[in-house]
Design a protein that fits this description.
Blueprint (H helix, E strand, L loop, with lengths): L16 E15 L4 E10 L6 E8 L6 H4 L5 E11 L2 E12 L3 H5 L9 H13 L4 H11 L2 H9 L13 H19 L4 H10 L4 H4 L10 H5 L1 H15 L6 H13 L15 H21 L8 E4 L4 E4 L5 H8 L11
Parallel strand pairs: 3-5
Antiparallel strand pairs: 1-2, 1-4, 2-3, 4-5, 6-7
Helix pairs in contact: 3-4, 3-6, 6-7, 6-12, 7-11, 7-12, 10-11
Length: 339
């Protein structure tokens, strides 16, 4: 498919020219002050084909209508100039050429989780086996024995854009917070069984809400019902297969899903009503915020990045022990070496 640009090397200069192969991750029509535009997210490969970099892009002049006809998930040869917009580098497209590509070539432009899905699923299975309360343990094992849930859970992204927006992102995000929950449960005297299940279930509905196909589009069910309803419905169906499953436990499990955004202003119809529900909300938020901060890379070697979801500047050097050691003139605690 040819060599793609290293998108991370373009940034500070107002006249930096870009030319490379990219995946059209999203596209919709928009408008500016003077003219209509095609607003896109393009995914480029890094130098030598290593790594992926998402860029916001704008096509302002498109007399041939190429931008409007592009399918999400297709590959294009993109040419343009990097400009700064809302503190971020943005690609102002001057030319787009659709490319023919095989499914394998397209797949190589879709961001993937770096964790092993088989090992991650085995770890979640082990968590379910470790539950103590008989009904909750039976529920957890029954849920993770569902072939549909297992196949979707392994590949679903956790979000379309903000955090863990990769194939397998939901699994990575869920295991991350379950590992944290397992450690804090005894410290905060939380019910470990309920907490681990709440963390597993909080975003379960995203299995049906967001497609793992190129572009991570919302499904019809996702648009009509949303992941909270879809998750609660899956919990209800699973509990219905367990004889004499207590109604109170069913309500508590569904409450984790309905309250995990933490505030009604952020989409939760109810606020966390138990310490375990509050912990689910906090751990979910922590995982997402840290992921977004790490993804906010600077351009052209800039050690500062911009995290647009919170409108915050992120100093990547500030969490690197080796770099901090250089700044302070002291030994790097991880290596024992000085500046």
């Amino acid at each position: 498919m040819g060599t793609s640009i290293d998108a991370s090397t373009a940034g500070k200069s107002q006249t930096k020219e870009v030319r490379g192969v990219a995946l059209v991750k999203s596209r919709h029509a928009g408008s500016g002050e003077k003219a209509p535009a095609q607003i896109m997210t393009l995914v480029f490969k890094g130098e030598g084909g290593k790594g992926l970099k998402e860029w916001p892009a704008r096509l302002w002049e498109d007399p041939r209508g190429i931008g409007a006809s592009l399918a999400v998930g297709s590959l294009v040869l993109a040419e343009g100039t990097v400009v700064r917009h809302n503190q971020e580098p943005q690609l102002r497209i001057t030319r787009l050429t659709p490319l023919k590509a095989s499914p394998e070539e397209i797949q190589s432009y879709i961001p993937q989780s770096t964790i092993s899905s088989s090992l991650a699923m085995a770890r979640i299975d082990a968590f379910m086996e470790s539950l103590v309360e008989p009904h909750l343990k039976t529920f957890g094992i029954e849920l993770m024995s569902d072939p549909e849930i297992r196949s979707l859970f392994e590949r679903a992204p956790a979000a379309k854009r903000n955090h863990h927006a990769v194939v397998g992102g939901l699994l990575e995000h869920t295991l991350e917070i379950m590992e944290m929950g397992d450690r804090i449960a005894p410290i905060l005297r939380l019910n470990r069984d309920l907490l681990l299940l709440g963390l597993l279930l909080h975003d379960l509905g995203k299995c049906w809400e967001i497609s793992s196909q190129p572009g991570f589009a919302y499904t019809d069910d996702g648009r009509l019902l949303g992941h909270m309803f879809l998750g609660c419905d899956a919990v209800r169906r699973t509990a219905g297969r367990i004889p004499e499953f207590p109604g109170t436990l069913l309500k508590l499990l569904q409450h984790f899903i309905l309250s995990h955004h933490g505030e009604m202003a952020y989409g939760s119809p109810v606020l966390p009503a138990t310490p375990e529900a509050m912990a689910v909300h906090m751990l979910d938020n922590l995982s997402g915020q840290v992921y977004a901060m790490r993804a906010a890379k600077g351009s052209d070697g800039d050690e500062w990045g911009y995290e647009r979801n919170r409108g915050a500047q992120i100093w990547h050097r500030g969490s690197d022990p080796a770099e901090l050691a250089k700044l302070s003139g002291k030994k790097d605690p991880s290596t024992g070496q000085g500046a």
